[in-house]
Amino acid sequence: MAVKITPEVQAQINRIREAVASGKISREDAMKKFAELRRTQVAGHYSKSSPAKKTQPHLQQRPPQKPGANSGKQWQGKPQSAHGDAKSKTNAEQFGKQYVQKIHKAVAAGDLTKEEAAKKIAALRQKMATRDSQAKPQSRPQARPQPQARPQTDRRSSNAAPGFNHEAALRVRQAMAKAVENGEMTREQAAERFRQWMQRQQEAPQRGVQTDRAPQERPQSQPQARPQIDRRPATLPPAIRAEAGKLMLELRKAVEAGEMTREQAAQRFNRWRQQYGTQAPQAGPDRSKLDRPATDQRPSSGARPSRAVPATPAKPAKAKPAQPAKPATTQRKQAIQATKIQPAPVFQLPPEKK
């Protein structure tokens, strides 16, 4: 923004230039004076043409007010309305007195009769009484008292069944009361429905039906009893043990083929064992042998000879070709030339003559 040079500032600039030309001051001192003069000129320009004072009137200084007649009085507050003001009441009383005096003068002069004067005075008094009643602040209507909630009592019937659910009865009673309040049913209908519900609850234990909303317990299924096998300790000769093993193998094959069940196989083995009395094996058919297929049973033979596993030769690692090193790229830093703000030509000296 261009700064306007006043004649006074121009005269100072000319004097500084003449002093430099005559050799009274140096060029450095002259430049310092130019800089100070320029700062003063710019500061004065912005203080005079500040847009804040033009666009914002509240920042401008208010002119001093002259003391008036009400300058020494204190603030008495907002004036009251015409109905509640004491001055208005006094004016109404004075008007009433003046009006009554005029009526008396008219009666004395013969313009009005006493009956007419009495009617006018009564009408005036009624009008003033009505105005005074309107001037009084109206009291707010009292809020309607809300009905107090009745305490909920646990009305448990003395003749209820031992397994009667009192909590369910309380929930049903509360639901009926809410329906009556909402207007969905009358009190008689609610009482009839609750009576029917109570009757169903009392009949439920006899029928074995559970009518409340409690989760019903499912009967637990008992595991089926397996046939018991007589397990008595006994010492058997090798021949009987071999025959028992042979029989167990046959029974296992029959069970796997589907010719008989496990229970039938166990019963048949028990009948065979009863023929030998206490000399029969005490464990009966081995359950693990019956459940396991024949392919899993392996004859117990001697330890197998260990077989040496030939070691696999290690594969030679492939050598990767060496990649040529990339030359390092140097980043050139471009120096930013410093720019110097030059003052206006007015505040500059002419070039020095050599």
- Mean pLDDT equals 70
Total helices: the number is 10
Low-pLDDT segments: 209-216, 283-303
Overall radius of gyration = 62 Å
Strand content: under 5%
For the secondary structure, the number of strands is 0
Characterize the overall form: flat
The chain-level structural class is mainly alpha
Task: Please write the string of helix (H) and strand (E) elements.
Answer: HHHHHHHHHH
Major sheet description: none
Distance between the termini: 35 Å
Portion of residues within helices? 40-55%
SSE layout:
Elements: H1 7-22, H2 27-48, H3 51-55, H4 86-109, H5 114-135, H6 166-181, H7 187-207, H8 238-257, H9 262-274, H10 287-291
Which features characterize this protein?
mainly alpha, 354 residues, 10 helices, 46% helix
Question: Can you offer a commentary on this structure?
Answer:
This protein is mainly α and 354 residues long. Among the domains are: 7-51; 89-132; 166-205; 238-295, no CATH class. The chain contains ten helices and no strands. The chain has helices at residues 7-22, 27-48, 51-55, 86-109, 114-135, 166-181, 187-207, 238-257, 262-274, 287-291. The chain is flat, with a radius of gyration of 62 Å. The two termini are 35 Å apart. The model is unreliable at 209-216 and 283-303 (pLDDT under 50).
Short précis:
This protein has 354 residues and is mainly alpha-helical. 46% of the residues lie in helices and 0% in strands.
